[in-house]
Amino acid sequence: MSAMTTARLASWLEAALAIALAIVWISPLIFAFWAAFHTSSDAVDFKLDATWTLENFRTAWNGAPWLTYFLNSFLLVTSVLIGQFVLCTLAGFAFAQVEFRGKDVIFILVLLQLFILPEVLIVENYVVASELGIVDSILGMGAPYMASAFGIFLMRQTFKSVPKELDDAARVEGCGLLGVLWRVYVPAARPTYIAYALVSVLTHWNNFLWPLIVTNTDAARPITVGLSIFAAPENGVDISVISAATVMAIAPLLVLFLVFQRQFVQAFLQAGIK
Question: How many other CB atoms are there within 10 angstroms of residue 91's CB atom?
């Protein structure tokens, strides 16, 4: 077997493996869409000639305060993202361009948070939230995530790549420390902000465990926690209704990605996230 034939065979095998992995990855989503538009029996039996219906969406919509859930999720991801942008920008800039005693040690301590699972701190976070009186609130759900070690690391690396000449030119023009940050570093980090925003929004829109623990009423629950009522045994489990509710829960993210997919891909490439 020639080297060219071997290389071509390897390329085909890689493509086949990639396609197989993609099918496995997307199959739950395909089933959710299939079941959402069919009765439970037709969905499970995979009857291709089964009648399509919207009744599952009507049942799901009438079974929960969806507008409240959507609003809470929107407020949650927005507040977390704003908090992360502010805190990670300031901390990343300090670690990248400001000299102070113990900077490297403090940065290592920040990076250590990347190795601590959020679930490990649930009890401590709940105690703090309870003492601050922010249990069952949007702030209570979002506060533990606003100081992101990953965000700080990402912004530090981005700011360190900004040419020093731009910093010096801004200082010559009379900009102070915050002026240099706002006029030089923040615009240069725009692709990184977009890429990080995508990761943050996806993460916190889909977050379930901490919002489940810290919220007690529908007035504060996000859509992921509200979605769980459709899987409660006491309410009866209908796979088609659950699938319809799931489709409604992920629909905003799918629309967001489809509309801005080009910007998202370009942002990830420019930010150097692989």
Answer: 21
| Cα(197)–Cα(154) distance, integer angstroms | 12
Which amino acid, one-letter code, is at 28? P
Phi, psi of 220 (to 5 degrees): -120, -10
Instruction: Summarize pLDDT for 27-77 with one digit per residue, the tens.
Output: 888 888 889 998 888 888 777 778 899 999 999 899 889 999 999 999 999
Give residue 107's pLDDT band: very low, low, confident or very high (50, 70, 90): very high
User: What is the number of helices (H) and of strands (E) in the chain?
Assistant: 15, 0
- The domains of the chain, with CATH numbers, are 3-55 (no CATH), 64-271 (1.10.3720.10)
Least Cα distance to 208 among 118, 268, 131, 135 occurs for: 118
Amino acid at 165: E
User: What is the torsion angle, in degrees rounded to the nearest 10, for the CA atoms of residue 16, residue 262, residue 245 and residue 29?
Assistant: 0
- CA 244 → CA 30, 68, 79, 93, 204, distances in Å? 12, 18, 28, 44, 21
pTM of the model: 0.85
Cβ-based burial of 202 (10 A; exposed 0-12, middle 13-18, buried ≥19): middle
